[in-house]
Q: What sequence folds into this?
């Protein structure tokens, strides 16, 4: 199945987050509002001067100009022919309907000469002009940015209702895997479980909470038990054991416990990816090879975690670059070609052999080649999606 | 001064981070390597099979084909005419130089029929093929992504030397400001200090550590003392008090204590920004109006924090959109026009009056209009920089 269709099927099977929680506003950056928020106050909450200058009555200044200046008496209250000095942010007296900029006046003893007329409302921020009390400030499902946090806090709100972060259970499978905590060089035939940490750190980055499960051997019963034990999570990611082969039992377990929606996608690397649901919980099975697993995680995991957490989509960071060499796609596959980016030049990374570790460490981004394109020639301008 | 020149002058006055610290690999996401890292091990650290299949000697299979299959004896050791079954990731016996894919073989009792010849090295990951011991894995100044963390951990490394995060002192100035903690509606003429929290959350987002200072009134001596007290920080951001006016004493203090490099930039909003250094510490003075302060922070703060922390530049997220209405720039100013983004349409935000709170809360991004461009017509395709 092509990657686009697989993604559509998978995403449409994922429901949004149903749990929410109250968090302190100052800890709410990156969280998503679970409830539309209305302003508990007006801003400004008083008639506010937008300038340093003098509050006055516009009616007293009709016709004022450089050739025909008007004289006002400086006072501490507004009556006919008086003005009150104030600074930006000060309250404008009720009787005044305008603020004169200091630049348009000249002091003469206890008076000022005014050289410009003003229209009613000039430089006065009326109550609620910026935000009216009870006005909607943010809709439900809004992702809170630092500037939003400040806005909410300034309205006197100290807690907000946000969606709970999606809990993502990460289950590494493989007979040859050892926990990353092992500090000795593993014996021949054994490999450290690099994927769990990689997946977990991306889960965090994308707004979820990782739950690291112990390594599971490639045995259907044990995998089934581990998956069943984690059905309290909002999503499950299994790594390894996804190929069609004797030992590759992860998709079989998915099929038995729930719905296997997709197995095998036109994604290179990442073909043996499987997608499905168990009891409404999305299950993503990615290949055990870290490079392929990373691509499958980017292609399917990011969107799925976002959807499961009701976290709005954020576009990837993409930069334009010129290819320093040809890159080939795998025919009929959505192909992620790894590139090193330097001064707007994208250098294709030749990945000989398994190319597991070094290809991840060395690449800055992916050039993603659609299924119907054979590749790109040297000198082509391409979009590079940065590896975040 | 134009914004580009101001930024160049400011950035060239900022030195990189000189302190570093050891952190646990699993906590190092988003940190920057202070030391080039070499691989303490080879990967693979043994001769690794890249396939499920049989280890064999390529010399025994010369000429093998579908019409001329070769028979090998399945064994637990490699000699002439034998093969050893193995799975992906298993160790390949020393005497074998290739691994046959299971798909190219047919079992016949204790033997297999092989229908394809293999070249020496086929499907064998040699020791160090991916990463050679003592090879450079990451250079100094590399920003560690989740996938890098996994790579480093898989090499048995548990601590990395990274630059310390830059400490950024945030000093709010203003006679009308009240701390954000005040829960009551402020009295007329008083405003909650929204800027400190906004600046602090962006400082964190961009890799720094905020130090929130108490509100300082617009008095040169008190500002001077507060700035002096914070010269242990890696950067100082003052908000408010930057206009050229009676009370606007922040730039004056900057000039007295250090070097005022820039005061007043062609940035709209954000004109009264001042930039300088005191004892090699970058000092950024941004306008007190939150919308103007936000623009100044994006234009000057992000790059400065990155430079002070030796954190590599990451491009902004930019999306293309079509304007639903005309936007105008301020002539001769680099203008940040706020827009609401919906389905690839950018709706200009009309910001009447002070437009402080609502304009920030409602906008999704900025269309940045260069100094020499008057604006953009309705229907223009524009780049929208998302507000992060």
A:
């Amino acid at each position: 199945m092509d990657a686009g269709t697989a993604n559509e099927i998978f995403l449409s099977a994922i429901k949004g987050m149903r749990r929410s929680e109250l968090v302190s506003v100052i800890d709410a950056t990156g969280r998503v509002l679970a409830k539309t928020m209305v302003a508990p106050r007006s801003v400004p909450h008083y008639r506010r001067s937008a300038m340093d200058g003098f509050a006055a009555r516009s009616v007293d200044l009709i016709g004022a100009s450089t050739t025909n200046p008007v004289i006002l008496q400086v006072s501490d209250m507004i009556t006919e022919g008086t003005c009150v000095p104030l600074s930006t942010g000060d309250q404008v007296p009720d009787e005044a309907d305008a603020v004169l900029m200091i630049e348009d006046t000249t002091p003469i003893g206890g008076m000022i000469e005014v050289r410009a007329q003003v229209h009613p409302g000039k430089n006065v921020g009326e109550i609620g002009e910026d935000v009216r009390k009870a006005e909607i400030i943010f809709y439900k499902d809004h992702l809170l940015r630092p500037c939003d946090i400040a806005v909410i806090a300034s309205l006197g709100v100290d807690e907000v209702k946000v969606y709970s972060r999606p809990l993502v259970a990460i289950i590494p499978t493989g007979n040859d895997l050892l926990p990353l905590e092992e500090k000795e060089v593993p014996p021949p035939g054994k490999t450290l479980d690099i994927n769990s940490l990689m997946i977990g750190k991306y889960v965090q980055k994308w707004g979820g909470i990782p739950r690291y499960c112990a390594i599971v051997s490639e045995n259907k019963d044990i995998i089934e038990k581990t998956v069943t034990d984690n059905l309290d999570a909002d999503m499950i990611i299994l790594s390894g054991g996804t190929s069609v082969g004797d030992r590759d039992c992860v998709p079989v377990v998915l099929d038995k416990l729930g719905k296997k929606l997709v197995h095998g996608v036109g994604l290179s690397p990442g073909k043996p990816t499987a997608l499905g649901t168990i009891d409404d919980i999305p299950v993503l099975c990615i290949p055990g090879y870290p490079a392929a697993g990373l691509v499958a995680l980017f292609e399917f995991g990011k969107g799925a975690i976002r959807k499961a957490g009701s976290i709005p989509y954020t576009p990837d960071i993409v930069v334009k670059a010129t290819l320093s060499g040809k890159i080939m796609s795998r025919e009929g596959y959505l192909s992620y070609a790894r590139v090193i980016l330097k001064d707007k030049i994208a250098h294709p990374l030749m990945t000989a052999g398994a190319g597991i570790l070094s290809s991840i460490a060395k690449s800055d981004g992916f050039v993603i080649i659609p299924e119907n394109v054979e590749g790109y020639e040297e000198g082509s301008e391409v979009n590079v999606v940065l590896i975040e």
